[in-house]
Automatic annotation (TrEMBL), chain A:
Keywords: DNA-binding, Phosphoprotein. Residues 7-120 form the Response regulatory domain. It comes from Teichococcus aerophilus. The keyword Iron-sulfur does not apply. The modification 4-aspartylphosphate is found at D56. The lineage of its organism: Bacteria, Pseudomonadati, Pseudomonadota, Alphaproteobacteria, Acetobacterales. This is Response regulator transcription factor. Pfam families: Response_reg, Trans_reg_C.
TrEMBL record, chain B:
Residues 627-654 form a coiled coil. Keywords: ATP-binding, Coiled coil, Kinase, Membrane, Nucleotide-binding, Phosphoprotein, Transferase, Transmembrane, Transmembrane helix, Two-component regulatory system. One of its GO terms (molecular function) is kinase activity. This is histidine kinase. Pfam families: DUF4118, HATPase_c, HisKA, KdpD. The lineage of its organism: Bacteria, Pseudomonadati, Pseudomonadota, Alphaproteobacteria, Acetobacterales. Residues 662-877 form the Histidine kinase domain. Its main location: membrane. It comes from the Bacteria.
């Protein structure tokens, strides 16, 4: 089955994973490329120009964490990490090293496809306009030009400058997980990347002000935060 | 030297540091009863209490003195403990209550008091030591005549020997000594007024102890003692603070403890000399071959120990060189010796110890202690335990025997030769009864020989120069033989005893090192201790700090409850306790600690009561040597057990984490595949071609099988690791088992497996199901890790007392550094892309199964041309 959908490089050493992901991705309109080792993955990424990379962190020849920067060196395609549950530190390290998102084994296919869509949309959007305004996330509207955020037609939210910065940072990466490190760096600056307690306090304030739509701001335990819903 | 800033003396600082944490000791020292020690102690105690300190009166003896009782005031008094002893109710200081109450300061009257039988310590000063060790400050009272080193002087002055004594080191160790002094006249006046004793007692006291001369002398002693102490305090302060000053030269005093009545006096005198010089005291006893029958030096050695001397016993042939060597080696400057009563001939020849030392020890100051005026008669105990008269009675008997033999031989032997028969008699006397009977025998034999056989016969006259010369030579040789043979005999006896001791030690160390576990060791130690002491013995090891009997000889013997209290004491303090010791001496058992640098590893208990004979020194020493060896061996055994436990724990930990990691990976991957395949079918099954749908279903099915196998493996490995696998034992036809497994594997894999089965194999008693599982795992591995076109060979043959099953493949083999790990659970050899997935449990399970059947499993790789792996299973035939 041939199609012109975006190419997805699947890097996993387990043949069984390829056996079901291949047909599943094809059916969803993508073109899967198969790589069973780190070296194979580097070769395929260099020659086939994938639109997205699905990377299992547990490879036999090159450790996933070591492979990620080598891929990044020549390939701009966003990377979704496939990892085991319980390895929160590994996920954070991969996300901080430039991965876009992650899924945990055993993952639901629908969730994987939704993540792939989010990541591909974001990658496409950057080329058109990074700061499309106003942004709409469910019932929440964020007008970057007028520095206004409101839920449906309610009164605009009263946000401090810091809360506004945090909300817009999260909103720009909507649907995608952001590590504490990344958020602290973007909102407070590189000097405060270790001050996780700032983040906890401001996330709390923000949730309070978001009121009935607070559910949009979800915690990814041990990893970071995710804003917005997944359209499964 | 002058440039260097003075530094505090480390030893003094150390001694000060050792005092920290210990309760202080203050002694109210007096020269006589009634000077007001208790009065002063109570009065100071009250003023201290007024400042808010917790002061408790542990025990008070007012002797009915009203003034003293009035001083008690509001000070709380500890109730006395009642002890029932032989129908009497005795009252004693309650040490345990004091330890529980833990006052800041405890007032305890009469330091020299001897506790009632059944108390923990025989002496009150030992109670005080324990209180101080617990951090309680103790104030106490004492009269100077109770001081151990002064008891001799005091006895001379007042004519009464004081029974209750306190070792000098207790007073020396006191943080403060307060002298309560009143002039003798005033004391006598108080006595007359009835302030000290009741009138009738006072009258007696005035005639006896309380004579003015006595009081004056005692007062002088007390004052001098206190003055010495003040001096020592100042010196200690100066040393601790590095104040330069004229130091006493590095004097060291050596007390020479001989086998005579002066020994204890020597020790006391040496203590006093050492005190005056503020010099350390050493004591030495030289054990010689020729001195086994005189005074027992043990009491003097014990006294020296109590007086704080560094005691040593050596064995030497000759005393003076040994003394000088010891003295030089220890930088001794003063030697104190007793003027004993040496054998007469030594005194005549100037070969007494004293004379020799005076001649040779020019670089030492010698102190001679006079022999006591009334020396108890010398105790004679002959070498073989025979009474002394036997030796003398044997003299005429042996000479008569020799005469009889000579009469028989007369004529056949020249008369000169007959002398040899008499010499033989002298030698026999010397060997059996020592030099004195032998010398007498020599004289008698000479006279008889001369009278009966030398010409002219039947006169004592000698006929010519030849006879005179012969007779003279005979007499000299006989005397010489008497001396040397006697000494020789005893040397042999001493040497034999020492060889016996050495052999015993070697035997012991052999047994002790042969006992591998602590369990075997305690049995050996109990047996040896019982054998050495000739008494029931047991070994106790601490369990949660409580000593528990672990082995006993005879097997069913056990210390009674009262003795176990002594055992707990010995365990807690690491010292001897129980019978004839300082702690709980009324117990029937004595406990000796087995100590190493790490502490007390256990105890040996001996039932001492009811035994007529005390243990002799030789066996006592051997027992102590046993304890030392046993302590080290026990410690080693315990360390090894700990190590094994830790290793086992580490292994379990490693397995647990490997198990977790494996479940994380190996369970998740098939689950992901199954879920993914099913979801793909549900979400987009319509869009997929039929072949793709079939493949997805096949994926799900295969992964389910893989999961099942994986779970089975996990259950197996957990069962094996917990030792829950009990193999059946029934005769197994191994040839058949191998053929069956190979055929099944060929069917499922389509690979060729060659079976090489030897003729006439035994049918070992094994578990057929486990053998099948091992074979299946090994064959599966061989097929997985070798190219499809190659052959796998499985062989069975007899190998000595075992049966060997080998499985060989022609795969790429296993790297040497991996080979040692392949039987570890969850270990997987890094492999190429094509290799099939495994869980890393197969070989670990094989090893577990084979071990459960008392077999072994090993891997060899490469086996030929740098390729191939051979797995060998050895099972008992």
């Amino acid at each position: 089955m041939r199609n012109d959908g975006p190419r997805i490089l699947v890097i996993d050493d387990e043949p069984q994973i390829h056996r079901f992901l291949g047909p599943a991705l094809t059916a969803a309109g993508y073109e899967p490329i198969r790589a069973e080792s780190g070296h194979d993955a580097l070769r395929q990424a260099a020659t086939r120009n994938p639109a997205l990379i699905l990377l299992d962190l547990g490879l036999p020849d090159i450790d996933g964490h070591a492979l990620l920067p080598r891929l990044r060196a020549f390939c701009a395609a966003p990377v979704i990490i496939v990892s085991a549950r319980g390895d929160e530190a590994g996920k954070v390290a991969a996300l901080d090293a430039g991965a876009e998102d992650y899924v945990e084994k055993p993952f639901a296919l629908a969730e994987l496809l939704a993540r792939i869509r989010v990541v591909l949309r974001r990658a496409g959007a950057t080329e058109v306009a990074a700061n499309q305004t106003p942004m709409r996330i469910g019932p929440l509207t964020i007008d970057l030009d007028r520095r206004l955020a409101r839920i449906d037609e309610d009164e605009p939210l009263h946000l401090t400058p810091r809360e506004w910065k945090l909300l817009t940072t999260l909103a720009r990466s909507q649907g995608r997980v952001m590590t504490q490190h990344q958020l602290l760096n973007a909102v407070w600056g590189p000097a405060h990347v270790e001050d996780a307690q700032y983040l906890r306090v401001y996330i709390g304030h923000l949730r309070q002000k978001l009121g009935r739509v607070a559910g949009l701001l979800r915690t990814e335990p041990g990893v970071g935060y995710r804003f917005g819903e997944l359209d499964l | 030297m002058a440039d260097e800033p003075p530094r505090p003396d480390p030893d003094t600082l150390l001694a000060l540091a050792a005092k920290e944490g210990r309760g202080r000791l203050k002694v109210f020292l007096g020269a006589a009863p009634g000077v007001g020690k208790t009065f002063e102690m109570l009065s100071e105690g009250r003023s201290l209490k007024a400042t808010g300190a917790e002061v408790l009166v542990g025990l008070l003896e007012t002797h009915g003195r009203a003034e003293t009782a009035a001083q008690l005031g509001a000070l709380p008094v500890l109730p006395r403990r009642r002890i029932a002893y032989r129908g009497q109710a005795l009252e004693e200081f309650d040490l345990d209550a004091a330890l529980v109450l833990r006052p800041q300061v405890l007032l305890l009257d009469e330091l020299a008091h001897s506790n009632a039988p059944g108390s923990r310590h025989p002496k009150r000063w030992q109670d005080v030591e324990e209180l101080r060790a617990a951090g309680i400050e103790v104030w106490t009272t004492m009269n100077v005549q109770h001081l151990e080193s002064l008891s001799e002087d005091v006895a001379r002055i007042i004519g009464i020997r004081v029974q209750e004594t306190v070792p000098d080191h207790v007073l020396a160790d006191a943080d403060a000594v307060e002298l309560i002094d009143i002039p003798p006249a005033e004391l006598l006046e108080r006595l007359r007024q009835g302030k000290i004793y009741r009138p009738e007692q006072a009258a007696r006291a005035l005639k006896g102890f309380f004579r003015e001369g006595n009081l004056a002398a005692l007062r002088q002693i007390a004052l001098r003692r206190t003055a010495d102490r003040v001096d020592a305090d100042v010196t200690g302060y100066m040393r601790a603070n590095a104040i330069a000053g004229p130091w006493p030269a590095g004097d060291r005093v050596l007390a020479l403890i001989g086998r005579d009545a002066t020994a204890e006096d020597v020790v006391r005198q040496a203590r006093r000399i050492a005190d005056v010089l503020r010099a350390p005291l050493l004591a030495l006893h030289v054990e010689t071959a020729s001195a086994t029958d005189r005074f027992d030096p043990a009491p003097a050695l014990l006294l020296a120990e109590r007086l704080g001397a560094e005691v040593e016993t050596t064995v030497a042939r000759d005393v003076p060189p040994a003394v000088l060597a010891h003295a030089r080696a220890h930088n001794v400057t003063h030697i104190v010796i007793g003027r004993g009563r040496p054998a007469g001939w030594r005194r005549l020849t100037g070969r007494t110890l004293t004379a020799t030392l005076i001649r040779q020890a020019a670089d030492f100051t010698l102190h001679l202690i006079p022999a006591p005026t009334s020396v108890p008669g010398r105790v004679r105990a002959e070498a073989r335990g025979l009474p002394g008269w036997v030796g003398w009675a044997a003299v005429p008997v042996l000479v008569c025997l020799a005469t009889g033999a000579s009469l028989v031989a007369d004529g056949a032997v020249p008369e000169g030769g007959l002398g040899m028969i008499y010499l033989a008699a002298v030698v026999a006397l010397a060997a059996m009864f020592g030099p004195m009977p032998a010398a007498a025998g020599a004289l008698l034999a000479f006279l008889v020989w001369d009278f009966l056989f030398l010409l002219p016969r039947f006169t004592f006259a000698l006929s010519g120069i030849q006879e005179v010369m012969g007779a003279a030579i005979f007499f000299c040789v006989a005397l010489l033989l008497a001396g040397t043979t006697g000494g020789l005999g005893r040397s042999v006896a001493t040497a034999r005893a020492r060889v016996f001791g050495l052999r015993r030690l070697i035997e012991l160390s052999r047994k002790v090192s042969a006992a591998g576990s602590a369990g075997d060791l305690v049995v050996v130690v109990a047996q040896e201790a019982a054998g050495l002491s000739g008494r029931p013995a047991c070994v106790l090891l601490p369990l949660d700090g409580e000593p528990v009997v672990r082995a006993a000889r005879p097997v069913d013997i056990e210390p009674d409850t009262a003795s176990m209290a002594a055992a707990r004491w010995a365990q807690a303090k690491g010292t001897r306790a129980g019978f004839a010791t300082d702690a709980l001496p009324s117990a029937d058992w004595q406990f000796r600690p087995m100590r190493t640098a790490q502490g007390t590893v256990g105890l040996v208990g001996l039932r001492m009561s009811g035994m007529a004979t005390p243990m002799d020194a030789e066996h006592d020493r051997a027992l102590d040597a046993l304890l030392d060896q046993a302590a080290i061996a026990l410690e080693r055994a315990q360390l090894m057990a700990d190590q094994a436990r830790n290793a086992a724990r580490a292994e379990t930990e490693a397995l647990r984490s490997a198990l977790l990691a494996s479940i994380g990976h190996d369970l998740r991957t098939p689950l992901t595949s199954i879920r993914g395949a099913l979801e793909t079918l549900r979400l987009s099954g319509e869009a997929l071609p039929l072949a793709a749908r079939d493949d997805l279903l096949a994926t799900a099915e295969e992964e389910t099988i893989r999961l099942t196998r994986y779970l089975g493996n996990i259950v197996d490995i957990v069962r094996l690791e917990h030792g829950q696998l009990q193999p059946k034992r029934e005769p197994v036809d191994l040839g058949d088992a191998v053929r069956t497994a190979a055929e099944r594997m060929m069917r499922s894999s389509g690979r060729r497996i060659r079976c090489d089965i030897a003729e006439r194999l035994p049918a070992p008693r094994l578990d057929a199901a486990l053998i099948d599982q091992v074979l299946a795992n090994l064959l599966d591995n061989a097929i997985k890790f070798s190219p499809a076109e190659t052959e796998v060979v499985v062989a069975v043959r007899r190998d000595g007392p075992q049966v060997a099953i080998t499985v060989e493949d022609q795969g790429s083999g296993i790297a040497p550094d991996m080979l040692i790990h392949i039987f570890d659970p969850f270990f997987r050899v890094r492999r190429g892309d094509q290799a099939p997935a495994g869980t890393g449990l197969g070989l670990a399970i094989c090893r577990g199964l084979v071990h459960a059947m008392d077999g072994r499993i090993a891997a060899d790789s490469p086996i030929r041309d740098g390729k191939g792996t051979r797995m060998t299973v050895l099972l008992p035939a």
